[in-house]
Amino acid sequence: MRQRWPEKLWIVRHGQSAGNVARDAAHAAGQSMIDISVRDVDVPLSDLGKRQADALGHYFAALPEQERPEIILASPYVRARQTARAICEAGGTAEKRGPILDERLREREFGIFDRLTTSGIREKYPEIAEHRAMLGKFYHRAPGGESWADVILRLRGALDTISLHHADRRVLIVCHQVVVLCLRYILEEMDEEQILAIDKQGDVLNCGVCEYEFQPDDAKLCVPRLTRYNFAAPLTDEQAPVTAEPDRITGVR
What is the dihedral of CA 28, 33, 38, 44, to 10 degrees? Predict the structure, then answer.
């Protein structure tokens, strides 16, 4: 039976956000709360993040038209939407259409941990922090939030939709750090230990490119093959600074 997959799939994290900047300032000052006044969904790109998004758009626009993304799917969070729009406005898509928003690609929800630094979580919720350390972040769900396993559950549905509606097309997903990692977990059929080992090696680059091709294996089943991960050349080629920071408005990794 023929498997339905895109011809090519790119997964990119949004550019640096104002939340990243605010979190860094809170950590540097030893504060327990991150000073930002908007909902996480409304946090925009920083000025540097806009440069990164523009550079990524120029990279895709420089590809031959038959190699550019045809479909762009994006998290509805402002920083992801801004990144996706920058790619479209730079001519980085083969089709003249804007990004398609899919709430299943949204950032992991942190519940009561939102806006707290790591030290703030330990101070305000010591018992929950201890339980998280014991259980591990793959399965731990803060009250009102999501675990990595919860994110993976919704992403399986998103990939099913991509296979149904965008088979044999070139698809670009613009999302968030944990979402990039959880998509890798699904596509490469990893286990908890494997994906957490990748996470431990370092953060996903802002506007870093993760790329998959889909080719038949020995059983003649079409399988995803990772060809690039944390590919930063689109930024360095335009001298846009490369950043790799923990995601969201929280200090939790």
Answer: 30
